[in-house]
Design a protein that fits this description.
By secondary structure, the chain is of the alpha/beta class.
Length: 680
């Protein structure tokens, strides 16, 4: 069979780096950086260099599995597909189509996500389709659409290198998005000022000119205090505000509540620090704001993003190069899954399911009657298992590890009348399934991913799926056809052509135009070159809108019983629920076990030494993990990554939701910590 080298896209974070897979005799043996790639330009992080290692792991699923008691039995596809269809149809016939829930995937291609939501909406007349964006950037989609008209990164990754000021808030880009951090390093080398807002002293902080170690959950007080000072000192872009904005008077009136003194008190930092960063950000010719889940994963996550948008628009730092708002997407195709309508309230291209004209367009195109009632979110689908939701189809999602209050999630997964899980490994979620369908990883299929800067990129097939496993595209076509739908697609490119016809922002996207460097949407027609940055002459919604960001403190604050702040997040060597990285020998050697970061003063109080086992308890449960004594966390704060199934951080997290975007409050809850030997 020989050796070949296939250019494709990294399967990890939303940066969308280009990598080359070396295939020898049908086996992926190495990955290398693609020097011609427009985003990564010959660089890869530690995960990208190891992206081939999980592909041939012996744990890969190779045949459909049917639950028999507490075990699974292999069955052929000609039994698995009819069974899946029969069970879903039976549920819909008995309880109605809205009794079926579907979770699509940020790990799958645009074409697969499009087919998934189309299948759910056509076959069961339900909008109960969602995916993990609900748990990471749902506030971004909602807030940026409300203020700017488009819920996506305004600029391009490469723009960062030319920024004069970069404000990073709630993002540890050095570990979660290392290649993007490389662009920040370039900006610093050119003289840019890096300001970092984070309760932890992350690797990003090490390169900052100014660090604001605010109290957890006080982002809105900080941002409002900055805006109040900017307006008071007439540092805002008055011409931009008059020409392109609306709602300034209302915002200014609201800001009177947020003196710098009050903001500093809420944040636990010095007043002069707030004044200084406000001045630097506002006066810079080109300023960029980078944020991630440290902003969004709060009960006020939507309001947090509104405050970021307000600040950027107030200073005129939107609609031009080297400026803008940069929400860093966590998974390789979470942007694309949103774009493709794997959300309960919109069709592909963020077209509302409740808009009668839009509904009519999709009904005519698909030849099916569709529902105009927004569906349920991830947390609602799981929470209503065995009640309003009787059957579920989960594709390449792992809520048993990724969702908050895991004990409740595990009980919910048991409660479905019938659960279908479609994945590449027998994940923690798949272990609860009645039927498991073996799918394909990134190296085993073709299609497109859309990265965090809105860039459609080609994914190229390098090898075949293992054993009897099938490409995800093929599985969805089999299911759709068996449900009586016209899913007779021969290639993902045909699906992309259908998407382009129905979603104007992607009207010019075709596979043959993506060969060299991809295209950034909006790209409305075949002559359009794609869009490097949004809102140049006008906002997508017309005029930009200032929206008041009401502050809501964390729902759980430390008290006598639970005296510590607990926060969760990612770290450099592992990714999401560890399904892939913990099956990579190299990455697993880098970090082999779960841990929690504890401040040295707290460690002395707890009589805990580095490397000792500790028990962390919240109102929802407990885990046992290993203590890391470090000044990265402030006194009174604990941090633990959520990648480890043996110490499930989300056993602890608070499932309380942002009322607007329905994202849970992963980032802050109250906890107790003690030596494991002191267990009651």
């Amino acid at each position: 069979m020989g050796t070949k080298f296939i250019k494709t896209i990294c399967p990890y974070c939303g940066t969308g780096c280009g990598l080359i897979i070396k295939v020898k005799d049908g086996v992926a043996v190495a990955t290398y950086p693609d020097r011609e790639h427009p985003v990564s330009r010959g660089s890869l992080c530690i995960k990208g260099w190891s992206a081939h290692e999980f592909i041939h792991h012996p744990d890969r699923l190779t045949s459909p599995l049917l639950r028999k008691g507490d075990a699974f039995q292999e069955i052929p596809w000609d039994e698995a597909i009819p069974m899946a269809v029969d069970k879903l149809r039976e549920t819909a016939a008995k309880y109605g189509g809205d009794a079926v829930g579907g979770l699509s995937s940020a790990k799958c291609t645009n074409e697969e996500n499009y087919l998934f939501q189309k299948l759910m909406r056509m076959a069961f007349k339900t909008n109960n389709v969602d995916h993990c964006a609900r748990l990471c950037h749902a506030p971004t989609t909602v807030a940026m659409a409300q203020t700017l008209g488009s819920g996506a990164m305004t600029n391009s990754i490469s723009d960062l290198a030319g920024a004069e000021c970069i404000l990073v808030i709630g993002s540890n880009a050095a570990e979660s998005h290392p290649i993007i951090m490389g662009e920040i390093y370039k900006a610093i080398d050119r003289g840019a000022t890096l300001i970092v807002v984070d309760p932890r002293k992350t690797a990003v902080v090490q390169n900052a000119k100014i660090h604001l170690p605010i109290n957890p959950g006080t982002d809105i007080p900080l941002l409002c205090g900055m805006m109040k000072h900017i307006v008071d000192e007439n540092l805002h872009d008055e011409e931009f505000v008059k020409a392109r904005m609306e709602g300034f008077e209302e915002l200014n009136e609201f800001l009177q509540l947020w003196s710098v003194k009050r903001a500093a008190g809420e944040c636990g930092i010095d007043e002069e620090l707030i004044r200084n960063v406000a001045k630097i950000y506002a006066k810079a010719k080109e300023s960029a704001i980078i944020y991630c889940m440290g902003i969004t994963q709060h009960a006020c996550g939507t309001a947090n993003v509104l405050a970021i948008c307000d600040l950027a628009m107030l200073c005129g730092h939107v609609g031009k190069e080297h400026s803008g708002i940069y929400p860093l997407r966590g998974q390789n195709n979470v942007q694309g899954a949103c774009d493709m309508g794997a959300l309960p309230n919109v069709y592909p291209g963020y077209q509302s399911v409740s808009d009668s004209a839009i509904q009519d367009k999709f009904q005519k195109a698909w030849g099916a009657e569709l529902s105009d009632k927004p569906g349920l979110t991830v947390t609602e689908i799981i929470g209503l298992a065995g009640k309003d939701i009787r059957a579920a189809y989960i594709m390449a999602e792992n809520p048993a590890l990724s969702d908050p209050d895991t004990s409740h999630v595990l009980e919910s997964l048991k409660a479905f009348d019938f659960l279908i899980v479609h994945d590449i490994f027998l994940t923690e979620t798949a272990r609860f399934a009645n039927l498991v369908l073996p799918g394909s990883c990134f190296a085993e299929k073709s299609g497109t991913f859309t990265n965090t800067e809105r860039r459609f990129q080609l994914l190229r097939k390098a090898i075949d799926p293992p054993g009897n496993a099938k490409e995800d595209f093929a599985i969805l076509c089999l299911l759709g056809s068996a449900l009586g739908l016209d899913f007779s697609y021969n290639h993902p490119g045909e699906v992309m052509e259908e998407i382009a016809l129905l979603a104007p922002a992607y009207g010019g996207i075709r596979f043959d135009r993506l060969e060299r460097k991809g295209l950034q949407w909006p790209c409305p027609d075949s002559d359009h070159p794609g869009t490097q940055y949004l809102h140049k002459d006008r906002f997508t919604r017309g005029r930009g809108l200032f929206v008041i960001p009401e502050h809501t403190p964390p729902k759980e604050l430390p008290d006598d019983d639970y005296p510590y702040y607990l926060s969760t997040g990612r770290m450099f060597a592992h990714y999401h629920t560890g399904t892939m990285t913990r099956r990579s020998p190299f990455l697993n050697r880098e970090v082999e076990e779960a841990y929690a970061e504890i401040n040295p003063e707290d460690a002395i109080h707890l009589d805990v030494k580095d490397g000792e086992k500790i028990k962390i308890t919240t109102r929802r449960g407990s885990i046992i993990t290993t203590a890391r004594i470090t000044k990265r966390v402030s006194k009174g704060c604990i941090f633990t990554p959520f990648h480890f199934t043996e110490a499930r951080a989300n056993m602890l997290t608070n499932p309380v939701l942002d009322p607007v975007s329905k994202i849970p409050e992963f980032k802050v809850c109250a906890a107790d910590v003690r030596k494991e030997s002191q267990d009651d």
